Structures are given as structure tokens and as C-alpha cells.
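User: Please fill in residues for this 338-position structure.
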């Protein structure tokens, strides 16, 4: 097997810019959520609103989420070492997964508790609902600032890749902007639910509406936590690289005259903007061992040059008609080669 062990000396400007904007997005969201959490907690204690207290817990959970995302951004950037020869890129996915768990554990569960306690418990009298309205209005404005920053980043990066936002979010390898966008979207919807709960409580005199709003906030947070958890689970397990990149790598290898066939091509995300490429290739039989070695080195360098996300390349010379290898490839992909 020919192996390329050299790493890129530094990130491209696009990568650096993306990483810096992710940090800005997370810092802005964290500061906003911390301020809002304090305001909501005070308003919740004054009004006695379960929905408002649930929203306070929601903001606290979001604040912890930003702390975890900042940890992810910092720790995943460490260089490779003897213990972790492929680097620490996947650590970003680990901390982002914990962020999703935090949203569910500290946000959704508290909202469910407050909601069911209010619906099935003794009726509670509402006090000073105007305070709740004012705090919700301020929170909506502040959350909108954070949400717009996350939306701006996601939209710009999706346009740069000539993709719809939905496709970009499905294939994204940096969980930070997606997490902030989802949690801020949930925060804005949660504020509207809390407003409705307080308003209906004031109009009807029944605290059941307040409790139902709290339960709805819990369902919302649980849904967001599930979506983010599923995304980070896939990244942490080891997801294939962007299909566009995979097809590009295959086209590049297919175009090499010394290659008779690309028998198997595997890729895996090792972190944000870090892709591992493993290819089993049937080289021309006329190549000498020395020519084969130099060709593998040149191909690895070419792939890293053409695809900036490719950081590791492994090329294995194989015969295309080997029955065991063919069975392995077919077992993974079926009759259709990816």
C-alpha cells in the first residue's frame, strides 16, 4: 500500500474565514442567550408563568450549548500527534453531540416538568403579565440578532457551494452554525408559544394554557435535540465525504492514463474540512515498482491540490478481478458502484 503521510501546512483562507465566522456566530449566540436567560428567569418569578420559566430554562440550555460549541471549536483545531495521528477534528462532533443532549436534558425536560405540573396541578394565579410581554419582546429582538447571524452564515456558505440551504444543512460538516441556527429558530418559536400561553392565561383566567405552552416548548426542544443529535451521531461514527467531492476524486483518478480501473473508493469526514480518501486502484501492469511508488506520491499531492478538504490519501494497488475484493465491494454497495 502506498501511503501519503504529509499534512497541509495550514488552512486556506476560506477555511479560516469559515472557522472564524463559526466562532463569531457561537459567541454572539452565547452572549444573547445568557442575557435573555436572566431576563426570563426574573419575569418568570414575577409572573408565575410556567411557559416563561420554561423559556428561561431554554435559554440556560442554549447558553450551555454555546459553551460546548466553543469547546468543540477550540479542541478540534489541535494538531495531530502520536496518540491521534489523524488529528482531533472529530472532537468537534463529540462536543456538539453533548450540546444536543444539553438542549434535551436541561431545556426540554424542565419544560415538560413545568408544563405537566401546571396542567395537572393546582390552578395558579397570574401576576403582572405585562412584565412577561415586555421581556418576551426584548428577547425576541435579541434572539433575532443571533438568528440572523447564523442564517447569514449558512446562506452565504450554501450559495458558495451552489446548493439549497436544505441540502447544505444536510451535508454540512461543521455542526456549529447548524446548531446555532436550529436552536435560535426554536428560541423564536418558543417565545411566540410563551407569549400565547401568557396571553391565553390572561384572557381565560386558566393556567392550563400556560402549562400547554410549556409542554409545546418541551416538544419543540426535544425535536431540535433529536435532529442535532442525529446529525452529530452520523459525523461521529464516520460519514462519507460530500458526494460532489467523492465524484470529483473518482473522475480525477479515472482520468489518469496509468490507472486501468478504480476498484473501490472510500472517504470519511475526519473533521470540519478534513477528508480521508482511501482508494483501491488497478494500475497498469507495465509500471515498475519504482514508477508505481512515484505515481502514488504524485496522485496524493494532486488530490490534495485539487480538493482542499482532502488531508489524507491512501492508495492501494489491487487487481480488479480479485474475487474476494469484488465480493467485499459488492457487499458494501450492491451491484451499483457508488
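Assistant: Residues filled in for all 338 positions:
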Amino acid at each position: 500500500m502506498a501511503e501519503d503521510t504529509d499534512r497541509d501546512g495550514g488552512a486556506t483562507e476560506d477555511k479560516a474565514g469559515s472557522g472564524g465566522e463559526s466562532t463569531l456566530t457561537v459567541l454572539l449566540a452565547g452572549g444573547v442567550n445568557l442575557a435573555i436567560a436572566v431576563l426570563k428567569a426574573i419575569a418568570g418569578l414575577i409572573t408565575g408563568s410556567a411557559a416563561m420559566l420554561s423559556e428561561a430554562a431554554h435559554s440556560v440550555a442554549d447558553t450551555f450549548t454555546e459553551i460546548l460549541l466553543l469547546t468543540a471549536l477550540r479542541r478540534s483545531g489541535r494538531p495531530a500527534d502520536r496518540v491521534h495521528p489523524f488529528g482531533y477534528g472529530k472532537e468537534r462532533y463529540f462536543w456538539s453531540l453533548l450540546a444536543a443532549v444539553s438542549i434535551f436534558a436541561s431545556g426540554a425536560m424542565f419544560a415538560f416538568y413545568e408544563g405537566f405540573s401546571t396542567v395537572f396541578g393546582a390552578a395558579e394565579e397570574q401576576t403582572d403579565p405585562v412584565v412577561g410581554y415586555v421581556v418576551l419582546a426584548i428577547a425576541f429582538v435579541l434572539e433575532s440578532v443571533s438568528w440572523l447571524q447564523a442564517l447569514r452564515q449558512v446562506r452565504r456558505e450554501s450559495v458558495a457551494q451552489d446548493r439549497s440551504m436544505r441540502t447544505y444543512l444536510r451535508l454540512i460538516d461543521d455542526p456549529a452554525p447548524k446548531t446555532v441556527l436550529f436552536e435560535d429558530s426554536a428560541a423564536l418559536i418558543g417565545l411566540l408559544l410563551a407569549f400565547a400561553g401568557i396571553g391565553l392565561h390572561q384572557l381565560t383566567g386558566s393556567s392550563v394554557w400556560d402549562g400547554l405552552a410549556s409542554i409545546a416548548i418541551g416538544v419543540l426542544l426535544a425535536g431540535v435535540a433529536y435532529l442535532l443529535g442525529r446529525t452529530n451521531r452520523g459525523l461521529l461514527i464516520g460519514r462519507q465525504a460530500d458526494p460532489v467531492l467523492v465524484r470529483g476524486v473518482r473522475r480525477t483518478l479515472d482520468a489518469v492514463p496509468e490507472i486501468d480501473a478504480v476498484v473501490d473508493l472510500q472517504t470519511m469526514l475526519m473533521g470540519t474540512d478534513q477528508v480521508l480518501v482511501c482508494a483501491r486502484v488497478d494500475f497498469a501492469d507495465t509500471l515498475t515498482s519504482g514508477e508505481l511508488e512515484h505515481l502514488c506520491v504524485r496522485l496524493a499531492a494532486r488530490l490534495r491540490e485539487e480538493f482542499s478538504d482532502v488531508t489524507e490519501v491512501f492508495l492501494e494497488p489491487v487487481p480488479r478481478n480479485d474475487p474476494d475484493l469484488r465480493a467485499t465491494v459488492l457487499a458494501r454497495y450492491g451491484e451499483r458502484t457508488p
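For context: Confidence is low (pLDDT under 50) at residues 1-17.
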